[in-house]
């Protein structure tokens, strides 16, 4: 055996294998990240759609007199489920916003149902702006706080002029 050619051949083979493994690893990481981003984008899109449906349900309920009676507002299971899916899928830098989103919705959900549509609209817009990169996490948190504050404001009683 000619050792003078064996060692360089072995080293070249090992270097080629290392480059191949690194390439496969990088491709896998890129694909994994792309799949994660697509799944999370879809989950956030579902949240936005469910906020719209929730507002439609609340408006219908209020138009039928639900807000003036002791009736419970319509169920929100689809919206709660969509938010929970986002929380489940979120990783890394997405976790803080997912947690803030859930906390904000639960605060809104416990507010007067007549305040919920406006607050829900703020949250849905915030989700879209944050996810698209138009808003930073800090700006999104300010907006979520504004939604909670709107939901907590007292509702004007009929004819007393308060708001």
Describe this structure in words.
- The chain is mainly alpha-helical.
- The chain is rod-shaped, with a radius of gyration of 25 Å.
- The chain has one domain (36-152).
- 75% of the residues lie in helices and 0% in strands.
- It starts with a helix and ends in an 11-residue tail after the last helix.
- The longest helix is centred in the first third of the chain and has 61 residues, at 3-63.
- The protein has helices spanning 3-63, 77-89, 95-109, 116-132, 137-152.
Shape: rod-shaped
Count of domain modules: 1
Helix fraction bin:
over 70%
Tell me the span between the first and last alpha carbons: 94 Å
Low-confidence segments, given as residue ranges, are 159-163
Instruction: Report the sheet-strand fraction.
Output: under 5%
What is the H/E order?
Answer: HHHHH
Mean pLDDT across residues: 88
Radius of gyration: 25 Å
Set down the secondary structure blueprint:
Elements: H1 3-63, H2 77-89, H3 95-109, H4 116-132, H5 137-152
Helix pairs in contact: 1-2, 1-4, 2-3, 3-4, 3-5, 4-5
Can you tag this structure with a few keywords?
163 residues; mainly alpha; single chain; disordered C terminus
Task: Give a quick precis of the structure.
This protein is mostly helical and 163 residues long. The protein is 75% helix and 0% strand.
């Amino acid at each position: 055996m000619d050792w003078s050619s064996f060692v360089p051949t072995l080293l070249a083979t090992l270097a080629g294998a290392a480059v191949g493994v690194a390439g496969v690893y990088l491709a896998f990481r890129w694909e994994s990240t792309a799949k994660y981003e697509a799944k999370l984008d879809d989950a956030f899109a579902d949240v936005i759609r469910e906020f719209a449906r929730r507002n439609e349900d609340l408006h219908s309920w209020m138009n039928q007199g639900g807000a003036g009676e002791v009736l419970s507002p319509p169920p929100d299971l689809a919206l709660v489920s969509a938010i929970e899916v986002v929380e489940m899928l979120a990783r890394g830098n997405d976790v803080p916003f997912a947690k803030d989103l859930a906390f904000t919705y639960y605060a809104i959900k416990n507010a007067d149902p007549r305040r919920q549509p406006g607050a829900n609209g703020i949250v849905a817009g915030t989700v879209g702006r944050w996810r698209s990169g138009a808003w930073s996490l800090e700006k999104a948190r300010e907006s979520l706080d504004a939604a909670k504050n709107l939901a907590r404001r007292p509702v004007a009683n009929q004819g007393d002029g308060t708001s």
